[in-house]
Amino acid sequence: MKQMAAVSMTCALVAAAGPWASVPAHAGTLYSLDQTSTAPEVAGELSPLSDTLVGTITTDGTIGVLQSNNILGWSLQLNDNLRPADDVTLTPANSGIWFDTGNGLIASSTGLSFDFSLAGAVFIIQGTTHGFSSGYQYLCFQATSGPCVAGETIVPDYYSVDGVSATGLSGTLPLNPPPAVPESSNFALLSIGFAALGGLARLRQSKSASMAA
Q1: Could you give the CA distance from residue 153 to residue 161 in angstroms, rounded to a whole number?
Q2: Which of 48, 61, 188, 212 matches a 20 to 30 Å C-alpha distance to 150?
Q3: CA-to-CA distance for 149 and 36, rounded, in angstroms?
Q4: pLDDT digits (tens, 9 = 90+) for 6-41
Q5: CA distances from 92 to 19, 126, 127, 178 (A)
Q6: Phi/psi-derived region of residue 5, left when phi > 0, alpha when psi is between -120 and 50, beta in every other case
Q7: Cβ atoms 60, 28 nearer than 8 A
């Protein structure tokens, strides 16, 4: 009875905290990040897709709003698609979480997202070679005001040289690509395949029945 009462109390507390309550889990979770299809305003380069991001962030399994202590590690490849020599991979060995304010970074069972409409929300991972606030080697998600341009900023080398910023972002946006949706032609091929398998199964059943007779 005591155990059932404790479980009921825990569920009641989580429900009362609202939809963005952080629910701790017992195992780490690896999330993929893929920012290769944005159309940002250009800071230092002439192509809006000149800088892209792919990588992973590992959390402690917390679902809901993430704080710095919920993030166990990361491997973020900041790619300069015009100057590959400036590509950099940020890990805890060469970078750190510079800003994490405003509760903008959110984890769900399917991926990470950032609330670009939440005033004061900022999340920055920056390389430590040149130091924080140096303008070098960083990834920034910022809702309204803060040290970055409001939106998403990717800087493989130096902001005024090869940085790009995606502005005009609002709402809670996913940081990983949505799952691919099969095209109608693929659905047609799948239907044909399933029909063929069904026909083959019926043929085998018919032969088995004839042999048994």
Answers
A1: 13
A2: 61
A3: 19
A4: 434 444 433 444 444 555 544 689 999 988 765 544
A5: 30, 10, 9, 27
A6: alpha
A7: yes
Tokens of 199: 């026909």
Distant-in-sequence, close-in-space partners of 98: CB < 8 Å, separation ≥ 6: 124, 125, 126, 132, 133, 138
Tens digit of each residue's pLDDT (9 = 90 or more) over 53-93: 999 999 999 999 999 999 999 999 999 888 899 999 999 99
The two three-digit tokens of residue 155, written as one number: 């800087």
Alpha carbons 152 and 124: distance in angstroms, whole number: 10
The C-alpha angle with vertex 48 and arms to 45 and 51, in degrees rounded to 5, equals 70
pTM to 2 decimals? 0.70
